[in-house]
Design a protein that fits this description.
heterotetramer, A: alpha/beta, TIM Barrel, 4-stranded antiparallel β-sheet, 10 helices, about 20% strand, C: Rossmann fold, 2 domains, about 20% helix, binds flavin-adenine dinucleotide, binds flavin mononucleotide, binds FE2/S2 (inorganic) cluster
Chain lengths: ~325, ~325, ~290, ~290
Amino acid sequence: MTFSVRTVPAPTAPAEPACDVTTRLGPVTLPNPVLTASGCAAAGRELDQFFDVTQLGAVVTKSIQLAARSGRPTPRMAETPSGMLNSIGLQGPGIDDFLAKDLSWLRERGARTVVSIAGSSVEDYATLARRLRRADGVTAIEVNISCPNVADRGLVFACDPVAAGDVVAAVRHETDAAVPVFAKLSPDVTDIVAVARACVEAGADGLSMINTLLGMALDLDTMRPVLAGVTGGLSGPAIRPVAVRCIWQVHAALPDVPIIGMGGVRSGLDALEMVLAGASAVSVGTAVFNDPGAPPRVLHELVVALAERGFDRLSDAVGFAHRGPA
Amino acid sequence: MTFSVRTVPAPTAPAEPACDVTTRLGPVTLPNPVLTASGCAAAGRELDQFFDVTQLGAVVTKSIQLAARSGRPTPRMAETPSGMLNSIGLQGPGIDDFLAKDLSWLRERGARTVVSIAGSSVEDYATLARRLRRADGVTAIEVNISCPNVADRGLVFACDPVAAGDVVAAVRHETDAAVPVFAKLSPDVTDIVAVARACVEAGADGLSMINTLLGMALDLDTMRPVLAGVTGGLSGPAIRPVAVRCIWQVHAALPDVPIIGMGGVRSGLDALEMVLAGASAVSVGTAVFNDPGAPPRVLHELVVALAERGFDRLSDAVGFAHRGPA
Amino acid sequence: MSEATARPLQVRGEVLSTHRVGAYHHLVLVAPGVADQARPGQFVALALGGPDTNLVLRRAFSIYRVSTRGVYGGTVEIIYAARGAGTQWLARQVQHTRVDVVGPLGRPFAPPRDVASATLVGGGYGSAPLFALAEMLQARGCRVDFVLGAASSDRLFGALDAKRMGSIVAVTTDDGSAGTRGRVTDVLPAVIERAGTDVVYACGPMAMLRAVSVVADSYGIPAQCAVEESMACGIGVCMTCVLPVRGDDGITRMVRSCVEGPVFLGDRVRWDDVGTVPADALGAPR
Amino acid sequence: MSEATARPLQVRGEVLSTHRVGAYHHLVLVAPGVADQARPGQFVALALGGPDTNLVLRRAFSIYRVSTRGVYGGTVEIIYAARGAGTQWLARQVQHTRVDVVGPLGRPFAPPRDVASATLVGGGYGSAPLFALAEMLQARGCRVDFVLGAASSDRLFGALDAKRMGSIVAVTTDDGSAGTRGRVTDVLPAVIERAGTDVVYACGPMAMLRAVSVVADSYGIPAQCAVEESMACGIGVCMTCVLPVRGDDGITRMVRSCVEGPVFLGDRVRWDDVGTVPADALGAPR
Ligand SMILES: Cc1cc2nc3c(=O)[nH]c(=O)nc-3n(C[C@H](O)[C@H](O)[C@H](O)COP(=O)(O)OP(=O)(O)OC[C@H]3O[C@@H](n4cnc5c(N)ncnc54)[C@H](O)[C@@H]3O)c2cc1C
Ligand SMILES: Cc1cc2nc3c(=O)[nH]c(=O)nc-3n(C[C@H](O)[C@H](O)[C@H](O)COP(=O)(O)OP(=O)(O)OC[C@H]3O[C@@H](n4cnc5c(N)ncnc54)[C@H](O)[C@@H]3O)c2cc1C
Ligand SMILES: Cc1cc2nc3c(=O)[nH]c(=O)nc-3n(C[C@H](O)[C@H](O)[C@H](O)COP(=O)(O)O)c2cc1C
Ligand SMILES: Cc1cc2nc3c(=O)[nH]c(=O)nc-3n(C[C@H](O)[C@H](O)[C@H](O)COP(=O)(O)O)c2cc1C
Ligand code: FES
Ligand code: FES
């Protein structure tokens, strides 16, 4: 609560929704639009100590790969003005451990789960999707395409509409039609609408945006990069204007494609900004590090903010800023 | 001084340099590496009320176009976490008025001047360069290529290596060899090194980076974009990690090309970070709005920081973080 | 306040005292040097938020009063509404907090060439700069009348000062909680007629300034209006604070309200076009 | 401090008092509930900087002391060095400032199964958590000795408390301004030998912990070391705080020091490889 937020209503349990906050993400309807962000909530268990994770629209898991990964050396983070850099390097268990320990816990707990997957080849992603098809408790798949493509000299999939489309098509092909596939886009591209379009044409049910911006910081004592990984991903309130712009542009170009918005959301008003720009759901990432109670607080504040503005339904607010008040 | 800075030595006049801070920008040597940023200092006159602008390495002027321009409607700005959005729309006098009133004042005042130019066609830029060739008092030209190219459906020159190179080649062709031409790059591209390379191959003596990131904010009362121009440029401390990364990447790829670094510099330590990443000079932009005395303060703090780290010459610190302490 | 317009200063100020006045806050800042140069209608720009703030822009406030003498070697006073992040931060500060002050900024109200009857119109905290102006005018032998308006009585600032200084003092509130229910322009014509007004001075919201201009125009008298546009720098370098103003040559330009204003002649400002770039403005897109 | 490890709480804390102790600051926070659960070696994570801060991450601090009773319904005390932006902000706060507190976090020091002779080694503010530990150990009948080290005497924390509680108290400073000139490990062997140490508990900089581990190893006794790694979340969700630790199965994993630590067995931590991913670690790049 001492976090920098634009409004701070009493941090109580979500109020009786004054408006219908269910939200449709392609074939799936969530009870509300507030999710965690991949890599900022592990697989939900730690946050469940602070609030009931089944209260959220869904838990989005840390991106899972085929095999266990140790990630990058430390230091893995640097604080920056209103933001942070991270270079975790996707440390995590492989898909087997994830299914056995994390997904099963989430399912038993009764949480909805968006499984984020990451790979270094189209085949990796396809295999992960195949494994998930046989698993219970997958509400949606978020395809983290901000990974280097080993087949293309390490060029990040998300930076190339063709490669991005290939990954999405492979995942869509392996996934049950009832499970929506969301492609997670990187803002570090010249034309995000082109990548968005390629993903949708390849079968993505929706788009998640934005992933972190590539950034870096130097340690002025050692005079070397702070991060062992040299560059890292910039997240937090600092990037929110970029996230809102990306959501706005893509919603303008593809108004029927559901968007999960993220990037610097700390408060219900920040979430509302993304909804008005075109997001059907909102993920809370870095804000969790400052306030483990942020996701339910954001939901509560969003509900209040929608009601104050006379919205009976969240869906009426999605993309409202493109249309303007009547 | 109450601005958010990483260090706050006494805000006095620059100390006797403990180290040689002259810096080479291609054919030109400046007495020190701290400049203003284009569009954040008008043409120097207003700041001269707060400090002696001849103390700076150079004044970088607001981007000048052929004809006078009224810019965009208001609101033209929005504050964001540790940053701001602007959509000024390059309001300014045309080149004639600029030469008659602004450049002549700067020359008489004894300031070094980097003239920033902007256009909407390659021919515009060439014409501007031709006009400047006949003018006295132009220390360098900074080519603002973050402008829509009318010949290419409004695609921003800086987003396309070929278009960027065309502009630079045209300006270089019209400019005296003794006057360096710097191309100012946009971070909103998939591969900034490719654009940098194209500019250098087209004859740029150096590169300025970064221009603002494309961002946007919504007004949560009106539920419409805050800016009359809808999207705007994000600047300020929030973007510094992106700027440092761009400087780092380009310096790594083109170590002999001088770079003017900018993006969120508030203090001498911020400037040092850019120098260590590869910048030979540093522009102070948004920080001036908070602290009109920022440029000389940054210079003073940079000199102190260099001396504290045992640098006898600024040039030894340029790109030092790529090499690491011996 | 002194008469000479000099260059603005940047000084390390300090909060001397702060207290509430109705819905507003009255802040006294030690700001050596700024006071000596300030003229009525000018403003100061304050850097708010402390060392680790995420606020990067200064905030502009009209100068309410200054004192150039005394133990503090010069104080500047402002009246402000705590609405957004910066002003809310300011409202939490206590004595001795350091606040970087830039000022005085902008063009002040111009006194009439001859002795004249002046009507001063203020809306909300917009009345703050009018009292120093009144003092200056009275020192020059001018008659001074006031019209003060606000949404409600707690947003009415300076009615007592006005009563002390003004010949006529007319007060309006939107909700009728003080004075006449209505707008300042509902009562302004009557005041102008009774006072034989030669010049109107106004400070307040844009809509009020526009309406005041229309009334003054209809009486063929000039209105000097202090406008409030969003400002990023306050010193003329950023071009965020522009509005369309007709020049002596009849040409409309997008002029910076921080350096060419905040005080403009009402009949020069194209009130209906504020927030747009009129098609006939210099350099307008064709 | 209570014995049960329960889930961490997030509470709206408040500064009760703050004062300097040598080069450090001693902060007493009202944090209802946190105190009741805290065990020696655990830490709290504080959100610093106020409503408009540009600081987005919490800061971790070892719990120095708690009090579960009294009018404030539970206080937590920490000893901190004001170095960066967050701790400098904290040092400027006075009574009543609100500080959001998450805690207690992490795995505490494990008491020995049987009555034992324990040597507690602290470096700088790292000695802060050792006094509550000493109390707990003494309550279980353990002998407690202290080795406290610091760069200089002003960075030596708790020497008086140590003298009150410890059988032997050895002090070292790098500059010789207090105790023996040198490092804690210069005097640790002698203490271990005199005290017949069964277990070492240590908290301080990484280099110290590593050296203490080596000494303990050479005596064949366990060392419980509380590490300090950069943490973004402190609650186990971000993976920034990892270091290479050998498990019961002999396999090295990059484990989170915020939830699997901060207390580790010294011989399990691969001190030489901290800051790297050892090639034989689970999931290391091939
Ligand atoms: C010449 C001038 C004189 C002024 N005099 C006074 C005065 O005497 N008393 C008073 O209470 N207010 C005055 N204002 C308005 C005052 O500047 C804003 O209330 C203040 O900037 C709001 O800051 P905030 O941090 O509370 O709001 P935020 O919403 O956090 O501000 C965000 C940004 O928008 C700008 N902004 C927001 N509202 C306004 C506004 N109304 N006008 C200009 N910029 C704005 C801020 O400066 C800041 O850069 C004046 C403005 C100008 C231009
Ligand atoms: C388990 C644990 C216990 C600690 N106990 C204490 C204590 O009792 N007393 C004390 O003074 N300090 C303690 N520290 C270190 C304390 O967290 C840092 O001094 C503090 O975070 C620095 O914050 P800053 O705002 O001053 O520095 P900044 O440089 O502004 O911090 C920037 C970021 O880096 C992180 N960071 C910086 N230095 C450290 C560090 N040494 N360790 C971990 N993170 C760091 C910060 O948390 C923040 O996220 C502890 C750290 C950990 C992990
Ligand atoms: C520490 C950290 C780890 C992250 N890990 C992942 C990840 O594994 N997969 C992914 O798609 N995004 C990852 N992200 C990006 C976030 O999901 C999110 O897109 C980004 O941080 C912007 O949102 P925020 O500003 O709310 O954090 C990570 C971000 C952070 C800060
Ligand atoms: C209000 C404003 C106006 C700007 N105008 C220009 C311009 O005319 N030409 C240009 O090349 N860059 C312009 N810029 C970009 C700056 O020169 C600079 O590249 C950018 O703001 C990043 O630096 P900063 O964070 O220090 O401001 C402008 C920036 C701002 C904030
Ligand atoms: S506020 Fe910057 S030019 Fe007026
Ligand atoms: S600090 Fe986030 S996992 Fe340990």
